Amino acid sequence: MQLSREALLRAYRQMKLIREFEERLHVEIMTGEIAGFTHLYSGQEAVAVGVCEHLTADDKIISTHRGHGHCLAKGVEVKGMMKEIWGSREGTCKGKGGSMHIASEEHGMLGANGIVGAGAPIAVGAAIAAKLNGKGGVSITFSGDGACNQGTTFEAMNFAVVTKAPCIFIFENNHYSEHTGYEYAVGTSGDIASRAEAFGMKVWRGDGTDFMSVYDTMRDVLEYVRAGHGPASVEFDTERFFGHFEGDPQRYRADGELDRIRAERDCLRKFRDSVTGAGLLSHTELDSLDAEILDLIQSAVDDARAAERPTAEDVLTDVYISY
Q: Which domain holds residue 130?
């Protein structure tokens, strides 16, 4: 399906925004101003954007410890996220979530999660709620290849099938569960999708380094789930450009591996080559977006540095929704 120029520009802008957000954090973390662990999403942008471009305000997503890309793709505000990562009380979660726990209920982003596989049961609960309210919403849980080995994920998939919940399990197979290759760690010869299929749900596979592959795949998946057929699962083959966490020496990588995947499997480079080669967009248009995004990221960093810090009294607020 051919997207309009406006849709293609938006998709590129969203992917570029995620890429520059993460690349800038990679630099800023080295200053020591950002506390805690940070896990970057660079390389996987086509998955988050290709999925979320289909979603409505009624659709919910659950993320992982590598969640910045999902948040931005679902519409969470850039400057609020940067302030959150800097620990400001002006941040999206008032500085209490940090990098791994950003959530925004108004955007249908029900939270990133530092526990591998913990998002799947939450997503099923949100899917059952969507089924009961009858508005046609779906719930999506993003997981890495490591989460496919977790009992919480297995239980959630089984329960989703039993209840015919409109839940979509997306596995972003970036080839490494933390530091362990998926070929070794996933017993089904590295095939994650077949595990979901064993629970009785329909599965899809797609190229997570190709925006159009993700976009077209998710169009079919969402059509199936919104029609009331129950849950579905998708495995997207993708790449992680940085380590498991910032500071990871990545000694488990083969010599030249990072150079190869950046040269051959960069979703942004593939997108740019495709749309300019087909005459759908020009390099000038995309370069203009690049400059706009860099200015926005610089502004977000400047604002985050200057933003108000939490007070001692803030530790006692937002403990409960009501009490």
A: 5-316
